[in-house]
């Protein structure tokens, strides 16, 4: 059973466990900042041995698809999408076919490998040169697949965001058990917003005063405190509409921080601060980050201005081997 389900037993929010929780926390020393920094390692999450933070969302999205009597999910992303691959492979194990609308992105070795995995995943794939072309084609895709369950990029719908409400409750439990001090700030990368939105709502529900700091790494859509806090409020609305007794909860733009300061030029661009953070994490903590998300979130911490104790989320899961 989920923590959320235990807290709100009357709520009709179906859940399927896809990984082992709680994910481990440990202190990170040697980062050269005065704040205490702790790590919560979401990389360890996912029964397939891989996946990271997207699997947390699928624990709520997959059973919601069944609840809606859907056999097919439709979602979107770049041609190297990790989210799309996680949806295809974890969905397949739970009786769901995945249809992907993918948009071209610059090709490098990593994107080539992802493309091969996506081709082998069993998903039905439509590729387009631009977001505009994908949008034009979307009605055709929806009709051809008989109105599949649509999920926005990154799985950041209110249902997907429940995954990080759950993680906030998990963190609250770990704090109560004395595994780590109550964080003043939790720091995560922001790619589509569901992770920080869910966390902000979850801390409110858990009664922690922990603030969420998001290092935005994606400029494909508007991601700031306004849009991410709105997603948190929509997630609260969903919970209430499904019978969770949470009262009126509104998360506003002052309740969380989302800044693009660490993104660099664009999504996927490497930055010197990120490269430095990546090397430092490996050297002092044996922690393997990647340059696009997690290195940039750690770079934000290394600047030294975020209130501590800080809990840093490593959201990056290892890749599937096959
Ligand atoms: C998707 C992703 C994120 C961001 O999560 P969102 O909920 O999309 O904001 C962070 N880190 C990694 C490694 C991701 O793949």
Describe this structure in words.
The protein is α/β, with parallel strands linked by helices and 322 residues long. The chain folds into two domains: 3-53 and 157-314, Rossmann fold (3-Layer(aba) Sandwich); 69-155, 3-Layer(aba) Sandwich (Rossmann fold), CATH 3.40.50. It is built from ten helices and ten strands. The strands form two sheets. Strands 1-2-10-7-8-9 form a six-stranded mixed sheet. Strand 3 (72-78), helix 3 (82-93) and strand 4 form a beta-alpha-beta unit. The mean pLDDT is 96. The site of pyridoxal-5'-phosphate has 17 residues, from helix 2, strand 7 and helix 7. Its EC number is 4.4.1.15. It is an enzyme of class 4 (lyase).
Order the strands across the largest sheet as they lie in space: 1-2-10-7-8-9
Instruction: Spell the H/E element sequence.
Output: HEEHEHEHEHEHEHEHEHHE
Mean pLDDT: 96
Number of helices: 10
Bound molecules: pyridoxal-5'-phosphate
Spatial extent as radius of gyration: 19 Å
Q: Share of helix among residues?
A: 40-55%
**What best-fitting shape do the alpha-carbon axes yield?**
globular
Task: Report the CATH C-level class of the largest domain.
Answer: Alpha Beta
Biggest sheet descriptor: 6 strands, mixed
CATH architecture descriptor name of the largest domain: 3-Layer(aba) Sandwich
Whole-number count of domains: 2
According to DSSP, the number of beta strands is: 10
Parts with pLDDT < 50 across at least 5 consecutive residues: none
- Rounded to the nearest angstrom, the distance between the terminal CA atoms is 30 Å
Looking at the structure, the CATH topology of the largest domain is: Rossmann fold
Q: From the helix content, strand content and strand pairing, which structural class follows?
A: alpha/beta
- Strand share of the residues? 15-25%
As an assembly, this protein is single chain
């Amino acid at each position: 059973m989920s923590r959320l389900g235990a807290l709100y037993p009357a709520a009709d929010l179906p859940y399927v466990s896809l990984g082992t929780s709680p994910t481990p926390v440990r202190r990170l020393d040697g980062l050269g900042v005065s704040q205490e920094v702790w790590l919560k390692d979401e990389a360890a999450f996912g029964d397939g041995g891989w996946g990271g933070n997207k699997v947390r969302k699928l624990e709520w999205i997959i059973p919601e698809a069944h609840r809606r009597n859907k056999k097919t999910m439709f979602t979107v992303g770049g041609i190297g999408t990790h989210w799309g691959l996680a949806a295809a492979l974890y969905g397949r194990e739970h009786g769901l076919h995945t249809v992907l609308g993918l948009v071209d992105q610059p090709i490098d070795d990593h994107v080539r490998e992802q493309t091969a995995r996506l081709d082998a995943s069993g998903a039905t794939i439509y590729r387009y040169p631009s977001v505009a072309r994908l949008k034009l084609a979307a009605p055709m895709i929806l009709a051809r697949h008989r109105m599949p369950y649509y999920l926005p990029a990154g799985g950041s719908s209110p249902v997907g965001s429940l995954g990080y409400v759950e993680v906030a409750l998990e963190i609250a439990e770990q704090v109560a058990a004395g595994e780590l001090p109550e964080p003043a700030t939790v720091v995560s990368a922001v790619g589509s917003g569901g992770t920080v939105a869910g966390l902000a709502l979850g801390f409110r529900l858990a009664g922690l005063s922990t603030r969420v700091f998001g290092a935005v790494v994606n400029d494909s859509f508007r991601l700031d405190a306004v849009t991410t806090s709105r997603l948190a409020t929509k997630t609260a609305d969903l919970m209430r509409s499904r019978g969770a007794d949470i009262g009126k909860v509104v998360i506003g733009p002052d309740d969380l921080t989302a800044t693009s300061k660490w993104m660099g030029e664009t999504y996927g661009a490497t930055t010197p601060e990120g490269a430095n953070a990546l090397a430092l994490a490996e050297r002092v903590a044996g922690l393997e980050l990647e340059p696009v998300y997690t290195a940039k979130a750690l770079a934000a911490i290394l600047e030294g201005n975020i209130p501590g104790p800080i809990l840093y989320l490593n959201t990056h899961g290892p890749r599937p081997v096959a």
